[in-house]
Each structure stands twice: as structure tokens, then as C-alpha cells.
Specification:
The protein is of the alpha/beta class. The chain is globular and about 65 Å long. It has helices at 15-18, 22-31, 33-42, 54-62, 87-95, 112-117, 128-136, 172-180, 182-191, 203-218, 237-247, 263-269, 279-285; strands spanning 9-14, 73-79, 102-105, 122-125, 140-144, 158-162, 224-230, 253-256, 273-276, 291-294. The longest helix has 16 residues, at 203-218. The chain folds into two domains: 5-144, 3-Layer(aba) Sandwich (Rossmann fold); 158-294, Rossmann fold (3-Layer(aba) Sandwich), CATH 3.40.50.
Length: 320
């Protein structure tokens, strides 16, 4: 019978995220496709160095060891390489013992049409056009930043941190903050404290992780820990807590920072990956922890009516 990937948590990851292809990328950009292809063929038997997202991928695949014979996660290599230049990638996967058997080798064509075909739940790539196309197709997608070199040893527990607005939750409240200011945002959140926030692009990812957490804990293993790291603070925290309760989803740790920088909090949490939609937060976080910027569907936002009674006593801060 055909394998039904919809029953798995499927991650599509670019070969440049998994392996260090910086030299090959320079050849492609500086000398073109023909030179790149020739180099790959000439070095076909040379192993690729581990990339900055190798440890994360290894930790994700380790979730399949929770209960032998019961796979829960699939990783698919997504690349614009041609099949002819891909053997070096497969040889390296085999050398490092990664449990990856599926790949999309699009030969220069866009990858987005194949994401839904492989039931991809999360797409990670350094190519902004591919990430934006994935987001436009309604798939949770992250544009990866160059991660800090913190060693490539095995990761025993997968630690994933999320921003709130425009990531786990929709950008509805974020738009009020951007268009009308902090006071209007606070008033709106206080007035709607008992109304669950609409889902954001990564809500389904959080739900999938919660299922994997429960599965692991049933087997006596705690292989995933999640965190919410948001610039929200009181009183806007209440709506977030009630929303997660309504979703019946557990966040292991939550940080309502009220404008405090996120980077050191993420380092203290030990995040193996952090998802945020704002470039300013991503740039500071990426110096300390692996970070991916969340791109949302490119559509014209609808205006949102803020509540009245703005509170001008609170200091200015960023939302997200």
C-alpha cells in the first residue's frame, strides 16, 4: 500500500540547511550552474560537512526511536539540484546515518508545488523565494538564518521556541499595534481577553508537537520541550493563556517579556530553533541560537477595529 505521509509530522528541509554548502553556493553564484554541476560531480565522493541545522534535524529524527516500529516523523530533502548532482548529498546522508530516504530534486524548478504533494507540515530553507511561496501555499515556513557554531554534538531533548503574534497566533492584534500604537493594542487585548486568538501560520506545528510530546511521555521519554517567547506583557498575557487553553495545547515554558530582549532568554532556555516573524528579533536571536524568520501569506490585510480607552501610561514596546 502507498505510504500516507499525512499521518506523519513531515519536515521539508533544504540541502543547504542540512549540510555546509557555502563553497558550492559561491561557485554557483560566481560562475553559474555549469561550474557548480561540474564541481559536484568532481567531488561526488567527498563528504559534505555538517551544516548549522544538522543537529536539529538529527534531534527531530530521533523522535522515531520513542517506540520501535512506530514512526511519527519524516524528513524530506527539498532541493533545486538536479538528480545528477545530488549523489553527494545522499552519500553524506548515508555516512552520517540520517534516517532520510525521500527527496525532491526539482532541477531548478520551484519547490512550492511539491510541498503539498509530500504533505509537508514545516518547510525550512535559506531561499526566501521558496519560503515565501510555501507560505503563500498555506504551509508553515521559516527562512533560516546562519546559526551560531555551538558544536554539533547529539541533542537529547528538542527545544523549540515560538514568538506569539503572527507566528502561533494570527497577525490581527499585531496590526493594531503597528497601525494604532501600543495603547490601542493593550485596550483591544483587554477587551477581548476571553476571545481566543485566531490561529497563526505555526499553530498546526505546535499542535503536532503536542501530539509527539504526549506520545513520547506515554513511552516514558521527554524528548520535546516548547516555549513561548513574546514581547507581550500584562494585561495582554491573559488572552494568550486562554487561547492555548482553548486549543488544549500545552506550552512548557512561557516568557512575557514586555519589551525585554529575547536573545538571552532563548539562550537560557537552550532553544535549538526559534521562530519569529520580525527581522529585528531574528537578527539578535540568531547570534545565540538557531533562528528562522516566519514568512506569512502575501495577502492584503483586512483592517481591524481596535477597542477604545487607550492606556497611555505603559511604555513603548514591540509586539510579537
Amino acid at each position: 500500500m502507498p505510504v500516507d505521509l499525512s499521518k506523519f509530522f513531515v519536515i521539508g528541509i533544504s540541502s543547504r540547511a542540512l549540510f555546509d554548502l557555502s563553497k558550492e553556493d559561491r561557485i554557483f553564484r560566481g560562475h553559474g550552474l555549469k561550474a557548480f554541476s561540474a564541481y559536484q560531480l568532481e567531488h561526488e565522493d567527498d563528504l559534505l560537512p555538517k551544516g548549522t541545522w544538522f543537529a536539529l534535524t538529527e534531534a527531530i529524527l530521533r523522535l522515531n526511536s520513542v517506540v520501535p516500529g512506530k514512526r511519527k516523523v519524516e524528513v524530506v530533502i527539498m532541493s533545486r539540484n538536479s538528480a545528477d548532482t545530488s549523489l553527494r548529498i545522499f552519500n553524506s546522508i548515508d555516512h552520517y546515518g540520517l534516517d532520510i530516504t525521500r527527496a525532491v530534486l526539482a532541477g531548478g524548478a520551484p519547490l512550492a508545488p511539491y510541498l503539498s504533494a509530500f504533505d509537508v507540515d514545516l518547510f525550512l530553507s535559506a531561499d526566501e523565494a521558496d519560503v515565501q511561496a510555501a507560505a503563500n501555499a498555506g504551509i508553515a515556513a521559516g527562512l533560516i538564518h546562519q546559526a551560531p557554531q555551538n558544536g554539533d554534538g547529539p541533542v537529547d531533548q528538542l527545544r523549540i521556541a515560538f514568538d506569539g503574534d503572527s507566528v502561533l497566533f494570527s497577525g490581527e492584534s499585531e496590526r493594531i499595534y503597528q497601525e494604532q500604537g501600543l495603547a490601542a493594542f493593550m485596550a483591544y487585548e483587554k477587551a477581548n481577553a476571553r476571545k481566543p486568538l485566531p490561529e497563526g501560520p505555526f499553530a498546526k506545528v505546535l499542535r503536532a508537537l503536542a501530539i509527539l510530546q504526549a506520545f513520547g511521555e506515554t513511552a516514558g521519554q521527554n524528548l520535546i520541550r516548547t516555549a513561548l517567547v513574546t514581547a507581550r506583557n500584562s494585561p495582554s498575557h491573559e488572552r494568550v493563556i486562554r487561547t492555548l487553553r482553548e486549543w488544549n495545547v500545552r506550552i512548557d515554558e512561557a516568557f512575557f517579556l514586555g519589551g525585554v530582549s529575547k536573545d538571552k532568554i532563548l539562550q537560557a532556555f537552550g532553544a535549538q530553533i526559534f521562530f519569529d516573524d520580525q527581522e529585528v528579533h531574528c537578527q539578535s536571536a540568531a547570534k545565540l541560537v538557531p533562528t528562522a524568520r516566519v514568512l506569512t501569506e502575501a495577502v492584503e490585510p483586512k483592517p481591524v477595529q481596535a477597542a477604545a480607552s487607550p492606556d497611555k501610561s505603559r511604555p513603548h514596546q514591540a509586539v510579537g
